[in-house]
Design brief:
Layout: E1 2-13, E2 16-28, E3 33-37, H1 44-51, E4 59-64, E5 67-68, H2 74-84, E6 85-89, H3 100-109, H4 117-123, H5 139-152, E7 157-161, H6 169-185, E8 189-194, E9 205-210, E10 213-219
Parallel strand pairs: 3-8, 3-9, 6-7, 7-8
Antiparallel strand pairs: 1-2, 1-4, 4-5, 9-10
The structure holds adenosine-5'-triphosphate.
Adenosine-5'-triphosphate (ATP) is lined by residues 11, 18, 20, 38, 40-46.
Family: Belongs to the ABC transporter superfamily.
Keywords: Amino-acid transport, ATP-binding, Nucleotide-binding, Transport
Domain ABC transporter: 2-230
Length: 232
C-alpha cells in the first residue's frame, strides 16, 4: 500500500545538516497494524510527516498504491490527505463549543464516502455521549471521540502519534483495544508511533528506528490483544 524507497530527509541549519531520515526503505501493506518504535529524535514524526505530505522529502520516492506521492503538488497532496488519511494525536483537539456528534461531523464532512456517525458511536460504546460536550467527558472518552472523528470520513490509513500519551494504563488499553477492533472490523491500515514497547506486541509489523534509520523490522507471528500487553 505504501512503499518508501531510499527516502532521506535532512534539515540544514547554518553549516550543519541533520539527517532526520536516512535512506529509508519500507513497505506497509493494506490493513496492516504497524507500530513505529524509537527514542526521541529518532525520526518517527518525520516519517509520518513525509508519508502524509505534511513535509517534503529531500530525496527518494514514496508511493501509495500506484500513485507516486513525491510527485504531487501541495494541492494534490492536501486532496490526498483529505481522501485517504486520518490522524490521531496525543492531544484530542476537540472543539469545546461543539458536542460529540458535531465534533465527529467535522471529520465526516470532509470525506467523500463517510461512515454513519451514530453507528460508529454505538460500536465504540459512546452512544450516550452523543450530545455531551468535551468538558463533560474523561480524557479517555475524549480520545475515543477523536478516534471516531478521524474514522468517520472513512480514510484508508489512520496515523496515530502517541495516541495514549496522556492516558493511564487502563484508559490506554481501552483506546488500543478500539484501534485493534477498527483494524479488524473496518480493515483500516493503522500506523502507531510510540515510545511504549508494550504496544508493539499488538502489531503485525514493528519498525524500530534510531538516528533516522530503520534498525529492525519485526513481523509478529502472534499478535497480543490490547488488554494482554505488558505496559511500559
Ligand atoms: N523542523 C525541523 N528543523 C530542524 N530539525 C528538525 C526538524 N524537525 C525534526 N528535526 C530533527 O530531526 C530529527 C528527527 O526528529 P523527529 O521529530 O522525527 O523525531 P521523533 O522520533 O519523532 O522524536 P519524538 O519522539 O521526540 O517526537 C531530530 O534530530 C530533530 O531534531
Amino acid at each position: 500500500m505504501i512503499t518508501m524507497t531510499n527516502v532521506t530527509k535532512t534539515y540544514k541549519s547554518g553549516d550543519s545538516e541533520t539527517y532526520a531520515l536516512k535512506e529509508i526503505n519500507l513497505t506497509i501493506g493494506e490493513g496492516e497494524f504497524v507500530v513505529i518504535l524509537g527514542p526521541s529524535g529518532s525520526g518517527k514524526s518525520t516519517l509520518l510527516n513525509v508519508i502524509s505530505g505534511l513535509d517534503t522529502v529531500t530525496s527518494g520516492k514514496i508511493t501509495f498504491r500506484d500513485e507516486e506521492l513525491t510527485d504531487l503538488s501541495e494541492d494534490e497532496m492536501t486532496e490526498f490527505r483529505r481522501r485517504h488519511l486520518g490522524f490521531i494525536f496525543q492531544q484530542y483537539n476537540l472543539l469545546q463549543n461543539l458536542n460529540v456528534y458535531e465534533n465527529i461531523q467535522i471529520g465526516s464532512d470532509i470525506g467523500t464516502n463517510p461512515l454513519d456517525i451514530d453507528e460508529l458511536l454505538q460500536k465504540v460504546g459512546l452512544e450516550n455521549a452523543r450530545n455531551k460536550y468535551p468538558n463533560q467527558l474523561s480524557g479517555g472518552e475524549q480520545q475515543r471521540v477523536s478516534i471516531v472523528r478521524s474514522l468517520a470520513k472513512n480514510p484508508d490509513i489512520i496515523f496515530c502519534d502517541e495516541p495514549t500519551g496522556s492516558l493511564d494504563e487502563q484508559n490506554s488499553k481501552k483506546i488500543l483495544q478500539m484501534l485493534q477492533d477498527l483494524n479488524v472490523a473496518y480493515k483500516k491500515t493503522i500506523i502507531v508511533i510510540t515510545h511504549n514497547t508494550g504496544i508493539a506486541e499488538m502489531a503485525d509489523k514493528v519498525i524500530k528506528m534510531n538516528s533516522g534509520q530503520i534498525t529492525e523490522v519485526i513481523i509478529n507471528k502472534v499478535k497480543k490483544n490490547a488488554q494482554d500487553i505488558v505496559w511500559g
